[in-house]
Amino acid sequence: MLAGPPRLLSLVSVALLFGLAWWYLNLVQNPPTATAGSGVSNNGAGLNLDTSPAPAGGGATKPGTGTGKAKPLPIGRPYQGDPLDFGIAIRFTEPVAKPPGSTYSHIMVVPKTMKEDITWMDREIPDTPKIVYEVDNPDAENKVPQNKGREAMVYLTYIIDHYDKLPDTVLFMHAHRFAWHNNILQGQDSVRMIKSLNHERIARLGYMNVRCHHEPGCPDWIHMDRPGGDFDFFKKPEEIHWRRHIWEELHPGAPIPPSLSGVCCAQFAVTGDRIRQIPLERFIHYRKWLLTTTMDDQFSGRIFEYIWHYIFTGHEVYCPAQNTCYCDGYGICFGGRQNYTDYNDKQDERNKLFEELDVYQKKEAEAEKEGRKVEWDDRQKKRIEELRGLVHKMDPELERLRNEALERGKDAKARQEETENWSSEKIWEYMPKNG
C-alpha cells in the first residue's frame, strides 16, 4: 500500500487551512473604523464600528421623574462585515429596560417648515427636550443637506450628526399637534401621546411606532411584485413606487421580502443603543439615496415610512397587537384583545350612525344659512329622532369603557397581562374552562 503521497497532501492541506484561518481572523478583528459625522464609508471586508464609550449627549429625563443629562449608552454587539452588505443580517442584542421607576433621558426630533407653528410644544410639553430642523430655512440652526424626502431627510441627518451622543430614547415626531394618524383613543393629540408614552416599553423593545392602529400599513401592505391591475391607487399610492429595484438600491444583497408591513406614519421612538447597533455607514447610504433619487419628493419620503420598522427591528412585517400598544405603551387597558375589539366595534357602529345623522344635520345647517327651513317627511323625521337617540345612548357607554380602560391602566398587574412576553409558563391558565 502506498501511504506517502496521500499523507503529504494531507499535511499541505492542513497548513493551507491554518493559513487561511489566520488571515481571516486578522482581517475581521483588526479593521479600520468609521467616524460619526465624517460621511466617509469604508467598504472593506470585515469592517468593525468603533465600540469605545460614546460621550454624554443632550436629552433629559421623563417629565415628572427628575432631571439629569444623558449618560453614554452601552454600545450593542459590534457589527462585523461589510456595513453595506445588507445580506448580512444584524443580530440585535436583547433590549433590557432599567429597574422600575428609573428615568430615561430622551429627545424629540422635529422636522418643520417655516410656516408650521410649533409653539404648542413649548406650551404643553416644556419638559420634553427637542431639536428642530426647519427644512426650508437656509439660516436655520439645524440644517439638512437638502429639503428633500420629507421627514426622512431630517431623521437620517439627526442620526448621522448625533450617532455618538444619543440619549436613552429618541422620539421622532411631526410638527403638527393634531393629525388623523395620531391615536384615536388619545384624541389624535400628540401632547397626550408624548406625555403618557411609556419609555420602559421602548427600552424593552428597542423600537416602537407611537401609532397603535394597524391601518394603514398592517397586516399585509406592500407587495413589490403586485400586478399593475391590482394596484390600489387611492389607498396605497406608495406601493406604485415600491418595486424590486428600489429595494435593491436601498438594501443591496438583502433578500426580497414577500411583503413589507408596518404601522404608518413615520412617528416612532427608538433607543440610542438600537440605533448604534446599526452601522453608521447604512444611515449615510440611506441619506445618499434620498439625495440622489429621481423619485418625487412626496414618495421618496413615503418609501421610508414603510421601512423604518425594518431598519430598527430587522423584521419586514412588524405589527404589534393594538391593545398591547395602547395598554403597555400608554396605560389604556381594555383587559385583552377581545375586549379591545368589542370596544372598537361599538365605536365603529356609533360612528356610522352619526355619519348618517350628520347628513341630515348638515342639510339643516345649510338651509338655515340661506334663511329657509328643511321640510322632512314623516319617515325622515322618524329616522332622525331614531339616530339621535341611538347616538345619545351609545356615547356615555363608550365613555364609561374608555374611563375603565384608563383606570385599569394604572394597575401594574393589569398592564403586565396585556404586555408581550416569551414565556409559556402560565399559558394553560388562560385556556377556556369546560362547563
From TrEMBL:
Residues 343-370 form a coiled coil. Residues 39-51 have a biased composition (Polar residues). InterPro entries: DUF3431. It comes from the Eukaryota. Keywords: Coiled coil. Residues 404-418 have a biased composition (Basic and acidic residues). Residues 56-67 have a biased composition (Gly residues). This is Uncharacterized protein. It comes from Aaosphaeria arxii CBS 175.79.
